[in-house]
Design a protein that fits this description.
- The chain has twelve helices and 19 strands.
- The protein is α/β, with parallel strands linked by helices and 391 residues long.
- It has two domains: 173 residues, NAD(P)-binding Rossmann-like Domain (Rossmann fold, 3-Layer(aba) Sandwich); 178 residues, NAD(P)-binding Rossmann-like Domain (Rossmann fold, 3-Layer(aba) Sandwich).
- It has an eight-stranded mixed beta sheet with strand order 3-2-1-4-5-6-18-19. A seven-stranded mixed beta sheet has the order 11-10-9-12-13-15-14, sandwiched between helices. A two-stranded antiparallel ribbon has the order 7-8.
- Helix 3 links the parallel strand 4 and strand 5.
- Helix 1 packs parallel to helix 10, helix 5 packs parallel to helix 6 and helix 5 packs antiparallel against helix 10.
- InterPro entries: Ala_DH/PNT_CS2 (IPR008143), AlaDH/PNT_N (IPR007886), AlaDH/PNT_NAD(H)-bd (IPR007698), NAD(P)-bd_dom_sf (IPR036291).
- It catalyses: NAD(+) + NADPH + H(+)(in) = NADH + NADP(+) + H(+)(out).
Length: 391
């Protein structure tokens, strides 16, 4: 019978820093029980093992797991080698891979283009590694798309951060001291995170403009009550992502964007390309032209930032403009973010559980594209090329 293990995150917060670090867990108690039942409806012996403390920072304590049918809690990591399927949120430390059974399956947000040491360990132990970042953008895989589910949490929280850090009210207020006009907010990037940021800022009463180099984003932006900044550049690419701009296109979009930024009270940037550095969209000169008291919240900080002055995990002041580079942003909503991620995992894996065993189909339109390593080889062309270039 399939044995499943959920790892304790290596980047979990320390006891005295509960608001930083990775707070999510790969399975919440309800989904852990659901996955156990998918393996064995009788589940006389535990099917899913949760490492003690794995859910603590997401407010799922060990007792909640222990009380779930088919689920047990492990006091330490000594039994990792007994699991056939291992689930995580962030990439495990390379040393942790050595504790896993040869030929086991590892599933998580593995950052495959930045995790060379981890991939080499997976190769050496013939581990099948499935990266949730590489779930294809097809209709069938929408319920498995962890990037989208976590981006929704991140976009929402970024809008709240912008409202909290801004020097003005977001909504229009009519007071005895006069009328206060609503804040002007610009959201850069109209993907899942950007659209959630737009919707949240609108709910808070701000006037919102959106910037995206994909012309197809206009309809979604306007459906949320925001206005699209027209730059005359369309950079729609494959898989729903934006392609790289030419130098002429960059100059054209920069000129149009700079004009709008100069009047903004808050800017939320969300543009990211998986496996690559975040595109730099807001230059230092653009920041200089912004009004004092305005704020930039750069959701793309972990990938280098959309703003030239962004520093990941820090807040920078430049000419009266506050630039915030949040990290682990989805972890700021650990309960719902964990629940959504767990459902992504369940929707991905449950169709391939048959007679109590995991039977992955590597010709499948979802499993094939997200497989990084298998049988001691790097089987993903893009990841293999990135590793060769970094050698």
């Amino acid at each position: 019978m399939l044995s499943i293990r959920v790892l304790r995150e290596s980047r979990a917060p320390s006891a005295d820093a509960l608001t930083s670090g990775e707070r999510r867990v790969a399975l919440d108690p309800a989904t852990a029980g659901k996955l156990a039942m998918a393996v064995s409806k009788d589940a006389e012996s535990p099917v899913v093992t949760i490492e003690s403390g794995a859910g603590t920072h997401a407010f799922f304590n060990d007792e909640a797991y222990a009380d779930t049918r088919g689920v047990t809690v492990a006091d330490d990591d000594s039994g990792r080698g007994d699991a056939e399927l291992v689930l995580c949120v962030r990439p495990p430390e390379p040393e942790a891979i050595d504790q896993l059974a040869e030929g086991s399956v590892l599933v998580g947000l593995l950052a495959p283009f930045q995790s060379k040491a981890l991939i080499e360990r997976c190769k050496a132990r013939k581990i099948t590694a499935l990266s949730m970042e590489l779930v294809p953008r097809i209709s069938r895989a929408q319920s498995m798309d962890a990037l989208s589910s976590q981006a929704a949490a991140a976009g929402y929280h970024c809008a709240l951060t912008a409202a909290h850090e801004a020097s003005v009210f977001f909504p229009m207020l009519t007071t005895a001291a006069g009328t206060i006009r609503p804040a002007r907010v610009i959201v850069v990037g109209a993907g899942v995170a950007g659209l959630q940021a737009i919707a949240t800022a609108r709910r808070l009463g701000a006037q919102v403009w959106a910037y995206d180099i994909r012309a197809a984003a206009r309809e979604q932006v306007e459906s949320l009550g925001a206005k699209m900044i027209d730059t005359g550049v369309d950079a729609s690419g494959e898989g729903g992502y934006a392609r790289e701009l030419t130098e002429d296109e960059k100059a054209k979009q920069a000129e149009a964007l700079a004009k709008h930024l100069s009047t903004a009270h808050a800017v939320i940037t969300t543009a990211a390309i998986p496996g690559r550095r975040s595109p730099q969209i807001i230059s230092e000169d653009m920041v200089k032209r912004m009004q004092p008291g305005s704020v930039i919240v750069d959701l793309a900080a972990e990938g280098g930032g959309n703003c030239a002055l962004t520093k990941a995990g820090e807040t920078v002041m430049s000419g009266g403009v506050k630039i915030i580079g949040p990290t682990d942003i989805a972890s700021e909503l650990p309960v719902n973010a964990s629940e959504m991620y767990a459902k992504n995992l369940f929707n991905l894996l449950s169709p391939f559980i048959e007679d109590g065993e995991l039977k992955l189909d590597f010709e499948d339109a979802v499993i094939g594209p997200m497989c990084i390593t298998r049988n001691g080889d790097v089987v993903h062309d893009g990841v293999r090329k990135a590793l060769e270039e970094s050698a």
